[in-house]
Amino acid sequence: APARYGVGRLIEYSSFSGWPEISSAFWRQFEKATTLGKDAPVRSEIAKIAAASNDPQTRAQAALKMVQDRVRYVFVGFGTGNYTPATADETWERRYGDCKGKTALLLAILRELGISAEPVLVNQGGLDGMQNRLASPGLFDHVLVRSAIGENSYWLDGTQQSGPQLAFIPQPSFRTALPLRASGAELEDVRATPLTSPAVIEIVDIDASAGTEKPSRISIRKIAHGSEVYQLRSGLASLAGDDLKRALRGILAYDGSNGDDEETSWSYDDLTGAITLKWSGTQKLDWEGDTAEERYLVLPGAGFTPPSELKRPKEQDQSAPWAVDFPSFNCWVTTVKLPPDQGRIRWTYSSKPVNRVLGGVRYFRQATVRSGIIQTVMSKRALQAELSPAEAREIEAALPDFDNEKSMMYRERVGPDAGNTDDRRSTVDSSTIDWASAAKVCKPPPPK
Could you write out the DSSP letters of every residue in 280-306? Predict the structure, then answer.
């Protein structure tokens, strides 16, 4: 169930009359902290940003990068520091600050550049049901900036390091936000929407053209976007040598015991905020079948695990909704260059097309054989955050016909008049495609 249903017996007390009182009280703190001194050293940096561009989005990006990369994150909690922000001038002079100090500095820079911005209190853990709680500052654990530029609103977090460009900032993980305003503000819902592009894409390219008895050339890539990239990047940056290789193999679900490494690497894209993990090398594939004519291979990343039945013990609330892993969007692309056909023994595949919604998730899979290459594209995309009890019951009824069979390629004997077995659909060149905009590959094609 959603986390708000997990609250049992709870007694709360608060000296605040409501959320607007907290909003205005903290606004006064930040308004004081964002006031720059007349000769503040940071003014020269602001002037450089202003001179470089008149575009508000470009200016905001430069201001955010300046706070993220030139001011180190250090939590300041002595005395009243847990609630009182250091001033923008202090944070720039120190070259370190926590979320409060960095937010004050970013607000000061944006306002000097003529960009609309306000501080916002949030709970990074996505605290569910905050609207039903008494107004208390203790329910928040973070503060950041919300900036309105044109028709768009951006959540700017100065505590991140080398974050992506504004257009690629991921959706926030928090569910509610409290804007800080002079007259006070009510708590706001922050509703996530279904992802339009995959958060995680896994690409496996296999060159098995040398035959089933010889090692195949394999390339495995995992491209991730979103809020977890920062933590993953920090962890990988602290590793080197064999430790880094082992970590990357673990993330890519490859044990390395039956292959020869050629490349194990990772990279980060400052534009999109995507991290790419890669392993490539040679490996003997797990072909099955007793004879060369009977060989078959289960394709990695091409089989669905069916959703679980959603049932609760009778003593629990049967009317409560069910939580969905939302927003999420994962995509898997597997491409295999086939060994050559042998006369009337040709390669084909077993991978039924899938395009259905079940339990608030769209399942999609299609496979193609063309010009000696087999390719499967599979994705799971969450469409809603919660399921009603009626929607949960639909899963149980649909499970018997859910296609959870593994995809595989195998050889079959054909008659003398057999024609070309290629599909009309085209495969995508996974080595050249722009995976930052791969939504069109990972989504079902539009109806004709």
Answer: EEEE----BSSSGGG-EEEPTT--PPP
Query: At residue 127, what is the residue type?
Result: L
pLDDT at 437 over 70: no
Note whether 106 and 67 are within 8 A (CB): yes
Long-range contacts of 50-54 (CB under 8 A, 24+ apart): 50/112, 50/113
Closest CA to 20 of 189, 181, 190, 140: 181
Which region, left, alpha or beta, applies to residue 301 given φ > 0 means left and ψ of -120 to 50 means alpha?
left
First to last CA, the chain: 38
Question: Which of 56, 30, 39, 45 shows the shortest CA–CA distance to 109?
Answer: 45
49 and 106 in contact (C-beta within 8 Å)? no
Q: Which residues contact 257 (CB under 8 A, 6 or more apart)?
A: none
pLDDT in tens, 255-272: 666 678 888 899 999 899
Q: Which tokens sit at 433?
A: 């495609």
Q: Is the pLDDT of residue 78 over 90?
A: no
What sections of 219-326 are H helices per DSSP?
A: 229-237, 241-251
CA 377, chain centre distance (Å)? 19
Angle between helices 99-112 and 19-33 (to 10 degrees): 70
Strand partners for 333 = 203, 377
Provide the β-strand partners of residue 297: 409
Cα–Cα distance between 104 and 84 in angstroms, integer? 11
Which two three-digit tokens encode residue 301? Answer: 């990343």
> At a CB cut-off of 8 Å and minimum separation 6, what does 118 contact?
107, 145, 146, 179, 180, 181
pLDDT at 227: 79
Residues 6+ apart with CB under 8 A from 286: 297, 298
